[in-house]
Amino acid sequence: MFEGFETADVETPGATIHVVKGGDGPPLLLLHGYPQTHAMWHRVAPRLAERFTVVAPDLRGYGDSSAPPTVPDHTTYSKRAMAQDQVDVMRALGFARFAVVGHDRGARVAYRLALDHPETIARLVTLDIVPTYATFAAMTMTSTMATFHWFFLAQPYDLPERLIGAAPEYYLKTMLARWSGGGLATFAPEALAEYVRCFDAATIHASCEDYRAGATVDFALDEADLGHRRIACPMLALWGTGRRSRHGDVLDEWRKWADDVRGRGLDCGHFLPEEAPEETCREVVAFLAA
Predict the structure, then answer these.
(1) Neighbour tally for 197: CB within 10 Å
(2) Quick check: 88 and 120 in contact, CB under 8 A?
(3) Which of 24, 63, 211, 290 could tie 153 with a disulfide, CB 3.0–4.6 Å?
(4) Residue 180 near residue 94 (C-beta atoms within 8 A)
(5) Cα-Cα-Cα-Cα dihedral sign, residues 157, 179, 131, 28
(6) Which of the following is catalytic: 42, 85, 103, 104?
(7) CB within 8 A of 224, min separation 6: which ones?
(8) Cβ neighbourhood burial of 249 (10 Å; 0-12, 13-18, 19+)
(9) 103 is an active site residue
(10) Sheet holding 53-57: strands in order across?
(11) Where are the domains of the chain?
């Protein structure tokens, strides 16, 4: 899926992060979401590599990256910890400042990167999210039914792990099909096979910890920062119009966090880089080249 890209395992103080890297030009970090791996970028990374040096890692606990031991307060899988991983990875690869594009959980890492490490982030792109604090604060019966996994995965260990572990492939494919605009046909067979391969017991536990952190430490960090710290770099927000309406005005939410923010909805479901790769690529390239 990433012909011409090289692979590496980068040792950082927090985790061993598996990456693919390719292309030439200004550095661009791509961060995947749940329940996927870096493979989700396979339809856009080669195009972006024509203009940028593309680095696509697996987040800690996902894919072929290591899964550090968990702790009671879930900070091991906080977006702050995951963001630090990516700063360390990019420095190890020789990049002190870079642009970042994040989807889903990776987008939460990306905006935490922009808040915690403003000197390193030149431009920020988020795909199909609003901030964690805003998501929880705006929950209604309708949106909670649609995003039930936020609460299910955040339940205390090891209830969700046991239930998902009883039929991991069924759970994974069901979630992917529900969130996409076109069901499982959205996904290339080789990408889907990677998601299934990597969705083992360690990843299931790590991803539950990711959501437990979201409901605790990540929410608290957002709450503390809202109104006090702002995203300093230019920002682009894109979202799939097939799912996002329940969250209200996406740009209005991001303007509470950033002064220079623009964006629009794309006619697709949750997985923009796989459902609308050409349009996603055009928007990202135009924004990063501005």
Answers:
(1) 13
(2) no
(3) 211
(4) no
(5) positive
(6) 104
(7) none
(8) exposed
(9) no
(10) 6-11, 16-23, 53-57, 27-31, 98-103, 121-127, 235-240, 261-266
(11) 6-289
Q: Which residues, at least 6 apart from 38, have a Cβ–Cβ distance to it below 8 Å?
A: 18, 19, 20, 30, 32, 56, 57, 58, 63
Domain 6-289 = CATH 3.40.50.11240 = no
Each residue's pLDDT tens digit, 223-239: 999 999 999 999 999 99
| 32 belongs to the catalytic site | no
Q: Please identify which of the residues 32, 38, 103, 270 carries the catalytic annotation.
A: 270
pLDDT in tens, 175-220: 999 999 999 999 999 999 999 999 999 999 999 999 999 999 999 9
